[in-house]
Amino acid sequence: MKELNDNLKYFEKYLLRLTNQIVLDLQDILSDKIVVYKNNKTILDIKGYFFEYEYKYLDIIFYGLDKNLNLVTETIKLPTKLINENFKNHLMPECIYNSEIDIDNGYDEQKYSEEEFYDIFDEYKSKMHDIFLNWFFDCWKKAVGNKKLTVYAYFSVHDSYYSTDLKTMKRVNDDEIKKRFHTKN
To answer: Cβ atoms within 10 A of the Cβ of 174, count?
Structure first.
């Protein structure tokens, strides 16, 4: 469908316009400029940086955990500054959100069976998430540069069992993360 392909092209351009802000936010987190700690904790208490995104609106949050997987920071929503096209303070542009609703509500039953339509829509959403993930990973690499991280860093869908280890860019599960946190290093 042309509308879905147009959405993907627009989304890529939109994310490119957010790149500088996300890179700056990530650098500010890594350099401890914008992190707010809980209960007299400090950067020395952080064992891991966690970045999660919400599947529907692609909102990204950051938080830091200690060696016992306890929250030691306030959460930070990224990017810290959005451009005017955001939807109700979400990362997802409003025009794409509205377009998806219109497409979903008005699919042509003469042209596609319901199953065909949702297969096409699922493929579109998969491509959108791939674009989003690759964009975030590129931003992460730019933000980290040549710095050597002394803590773990992970990126995942909110409440997912799987995460991407941002140091290795490999997929890991919660059990592996817990094991890493409970080993001395």
So the answer is: 14
